[in-house]
């Protein structure tokens, strides 16, 4: 980017471009959230990792066009759900671990958090199909699978590394 382009992107012209994009971005985020939440509900209700697109679209109230604006396939949506669930779990575990003052307590908080989620009937109903089919999803999207596992395991590994470093 030369100096003129940089000045325009930072000035009034840049603002004029960003303003409508921000509104569109917010609408797309809302569509994504509706698709993800609807798919969670359908998976929870059916216990199947293979919900029909018709059920997901009906539950979300969105069109097929909205779906394909965000995902290339149903499998890509399911990998996104698996990643979303793991990242939510990672945030939950990180919150629990932050209350512990030392590494052993952080490790215990991580383990207790995983067990608490496994014992929660709603969380278990949402998670069971993904756990049962995680190898299939890993084959479809190995990088995404690896990254979401890493997000969940990193706080435990970091806590254990702090304890070893003492």
Show the helix and strand layout.
Blueprint: H1 3-10, H2 12-46, H3 53-60, H4 64-70, H5 74-98, H6 103-119, H7 121-132, H8 134-140, H9 142-164
Descriptive overview:
- The model has no long low-confidence stretch (mean pLDDT 83).
- Helices cover 86% and strands 0% of the residues.
- The protein is globular and about 50 Å long.
- Helix 5 crosses helix 8 (134-140), helix 5 (74-98) packs parallel to helix 9 (142-164) and helix 6 (103-119) runs antiparallel to helix 9 (142-164).
- The chain is an all-alpha fold.
Helical/strand content category = mainly alpha
Spans where pLDDT lies below 50 across 5 or more residues: none
Question: Can you count the helices?
Answer: 9
Main sheet: strands, sense, barrel: none
The helix content is over 70%
- Over the alpha carbons, how many angstroms does the gyration radius reach? 20 Å
Q: N-to-C terminal Cα separation, in Å?
A: 48 Å
Annotation, overall tally of beta strands? 0
Q: Give the helices and strands as they follow along the chain.
A: HHHHHHHHH
Shape: globular
Strand content bin: under 5%
Overall mean pLDDT? 83
Main attributes of the structure:
single chain; 166 residues; mainly alpha; 9 helices; 86% helix; 0% strand; globular
Briefly, what is this?
With 166 residues, the protein is mostly helical. The protein has helices at residues 3-10, 12-46, 53-60, 64-70, 74-98, 103-119, 121-132, 134-140, 142-164.
